[in-house]
Amino acid sequence: MNGAECLLRTLLANGVDLCIMNPGTSEMQFVSALDRVPGMRGVLGLFEGVCSGAADGYARMTGRPAATLLHLGPGLANGLANFHNARKALSPIVNIVGEHSTQHLGQDAPLTADIEAFARPVSGWVRTLECASAMGETASAAITAAIGPPGQVASLIVPADYSWSEAGEPGAVVQRAPRSLPTSETVRDIAAVLRSGRPVGLLLSGTALQARGLRAADRLRAATAARVFANRNGARMARGGDIPAAERIPYFPEAAQSLLAGIERMILVEAKRPVSFFGYPGLRSTLAPPECVFDILASLDQDGIGALEWLADELGAGPVPSGAVVRPVLPIGEPLTASAIGRAVGALVPEGAIFSDETVSCNEQIWPHLAGAPAHDHLPVTGGSIGQGLPVALGAALACPGRKVVALEADGSAMYTLQSLWTMAREKLDVTIVILANRRYRILDVEMKRTGARAVGPRADEMLDLTRPEPDWVKLSEGLGVQAVRATTADEFIREFSAAMREPGPRLIEAVLPRA
Amino acid sequence: MNGAECLLRTLLANGVDLCIMNPGTSEMQFVSALDRVPGMRGVLGLFEGVCSGAADGYARMTGRPAATLLHLGPGLANGLANFHNARKALSPIVNIVGEHSTQHLGQDAPLTADIEAFARPVSGWVRTLECASAMGETASAAITAAIGPPGQVASLIVPADYSWSEAGEPGAVVQRAPRSLPTSETVRDIAAVLRSGRPVGLLLSGTALQARGLRAADRLRAATAARVFANRNGARMARGGDIPAAERIPYFPEAAQSLLAGIERMILVEAKRPVSFFGYPGLRSTLAPPECVFDILASLDQDGIGALEWLADELGAGPVPSGAVVRPVLPIGEPLTASAIGRAVGALVPEGAIFSDETVSCNEQIWPHLAGAPAHDHLPVTGGSIGQGLPVALGAALACPGRKVVALEADGSAMYTLQSLWTMAREKLDVTIVILANRRYRILDVEMKRTGARAVGPRADEMLDLTRPEPDWVKLSEGLGVQAVRATTADEFIREFSAAMREPGPRLIEAVLPRA
């Protein structure tokens, strides 16, 4: 079999059966092989950032890698921002990039670029295939690297001639190394910290933010009065229904430092020490009190859930009765605000929903109300690169066909990768997109003052403004094949969002927010 | 003054008075300074690839750099594909990227990335500012690096605290080194080659493809029977009216090798040895005959125009009478094909138009007819990264407000950076966009076969198809604030394109082509 077929078969043998792609000439052998290698689902994105972000969303929901297939250096470049987010999410992705054929390399053709250099900043593993016969083993090595733990982007660069040449048999089936538990000494030491009665926090991220992790942390909270905090930029967090809540670390450092004030020991569970999103003049970037001592219960590649359960058992912490779910009240008759949207969504969303949340300035008005929704998963921005919300929603919908995906999108952020809508339409994915249209990079009004800049003058204002002209998200969505409506009152929003929850998607609601 | 103001004033003192940006928190000081530093025009792009491509288009038309202002690693990443094209175009660009404040670096915040690593593959010069007081001199160094010759992308990475700190006086006004001429020995030697009577070709690129260069080359052609070839991926080529034509090197290697067959000596004028776009099984990537000997009249950083004129004088080559311009005949009553569009555009476009040409499979049907248009400039894809056509058109329109810009766009390519339309609407730029809607990555049907892949099966077909669903470019354009119409016959196209030539833009025409 040729190299392309060998690669596809190696991926499939390892359970990688989704390839999200924007291929070009150097990847045509892979595309051709889709018809000869049964089982590989090809999904086309019309921009590479759609592909990389969708693979991230897929990985966050399944824990398994999808493959991406991109065209040469520039195609990879277009995917980098969402690979950056995937890197911060610790998402496993097998990123395949076509390269010029080896006899064409060195000719400095127009598309020639340093693909490895593009790949390195976002990838935990980068390799250019060295000969066609190494395809199988190199593909297996890429999968091994991708699946971790923890997950990472593994970039395999394939010269075109190795795809069309004889490559031999597929590579080995590889196993993910199990996530290890901490040593019993670590568990005992941390149990002692929790028994001390001093102010202790548990900071959860990674897999620890799944329901089992949160339940184990809640046992610890109830038994020891430790507080349970959540990394706001973790890949995925279970929430709603009877899933115990964690205190999410706020975005701005003052609020975060205030929340964490008095914490003397912070126990990290698949989490890093908390830092602010940006640095500001005269403010600390670290969020825990300066004198806080950190303990690592589970590192990023360890089993945070198992560690929390062990620790809870060690402390004899019993089960905690579930609290009652209080769903938000529908904002009937209200003006359409971010808070009203949050309440409507929290009231109407079905059990098992997945939120891809790329709200920015509106986030704090929406977030509290989602807690009243039935049990769901929440996928935040991990690496801060906007333009991930729609692709991540797309990938989550590919991963979980039976679940309702709701993309909560800022209008500024949605614009970066709006091509995602087309793929949602093609694949008939059950995604409801809510565009929070405040017609402004609103967060920058705040950040402008925080970085010490003076008042926003008229010329600066132009750089933050999205009203001249106003993007029309209904037309944009319809232009990409996704039915869309505009809501300007809470009642309209309730009606349209209810309809979207009843019927399969994709559909888009442009929620027009009042100007500040 | 603070660092941001120092940087803006250094740019302005050096004639860099346009900044195309998609800023974030770390760049707010620059945005704020726009209101305190008169003369800097800020133009907002809603995606970074719009900014980098627009700066490329601006540079190609003015020979001068614009600045780009991008947000941290991921913002830069989104601009890389069009910086790749700019690198291949030898376009001068001062690329400013905000970085986290120095006290925030090392905290591994969500947006932390290796910005220099992202910048290096596309930049001839990369530097992270080392202290606020070095702002002026470092900005001057960036400008010096950008302007060359030849031009290049100079990436200046500015930690946020150096923008808000006191930075002292602006940097020096720098001068571009003049492009040098070849030695008289080189000119004499190449004159001898041209006098030999053997089959000689001149291959022009860079500034040599401007009207003066083509006229000098035409004197050589008339005096010596040398043939004059044009790099098809040069940054900018003058054409139409009485500008002498050059033979453009074809896209596919067989056609290019056939065109160049028999050439014994090839004289390079700001050009590299010609190579094919892609490598194919069993085909050479080099396009000149294997035994062809190359001579360099002017290297990429030299004065190709001056060198050609000197050579023509050395050979006593007199002026060549202008040929008559034969405008194409309007395709009245015809079906709407790429050829009909080419003829209509060639017949209707005014003198001094600028074509941003990102047609792919349709290119050969359009290109010949543009030769019959009045004198114009043609901006092709330089680095092969699609998604440059709309941004380059935007930048050319910013550069040349009195000239009509026509973007000839493949529907697949236009999708990558469609956000460009919004900036065209905001800046009320006189751009007419023609979307050649064949609803397919058509070139890949050809490339699939050429790379040796088998027939396009149904699953491969899905990866090339743009009909399920069909993007609606009228809605997409209107959604971004640009008026748009659809044409399905040549008569409709003629009517709409004529209207677009009469009235200022922007406006978009979706030209629906027959399915293959």
Characterize the structure shown.
The structure is a homodimer of 516-residue chains. Chain A is α/β, with parallel strands linked by helices and 516 residues long. Chain A has 3 domains: 3-164, Rossmann fold (3-Layer(aba) Sandwich); 184-314, TPP-binding domain (Rossmann fold); 338-512, Thiamin diphosphate (ThDP)-binding fold, Pyr/PP domains (Rossmann fold, 3-Layer(aba) Sandwich), CATH 3.40.50. Chain A is built from 20 helices and 18 strands. Chain A has helices at residues 3-13, 28-33, 48-62, 72-89, 115-119, 135-147, 160-164, 184-195, 211-224, 253-260, 304-314, 338-348, 363-370, 389-399, 411-414, 420-426, 442-450, 458-464, 473-479, 490-502, and strands at 18-22, 41-44, 66-71, 93-99, 125-128, 153-159, 200-204, 227-230, 237-239, 247-248, 265-269, 293-298, 354-358, 376-380, 405-410, 431-437, 483-487, 507-512. The first copy, chain A, has a 7-stranded mixed sheet, sandwiched between helices. In chain A, strands 2-1-3-4-6-5 form a 6-stranded parallel sheet, with helices on both faces. In chain A, α3 packs parallel to α4 (72-89). The first copy, chain A, starts with a helix and ends with a strand. Chains A and B meet through α2, α4, α7, α16 and α17 of A and α2, α4, α7, α16 and α17 of B.
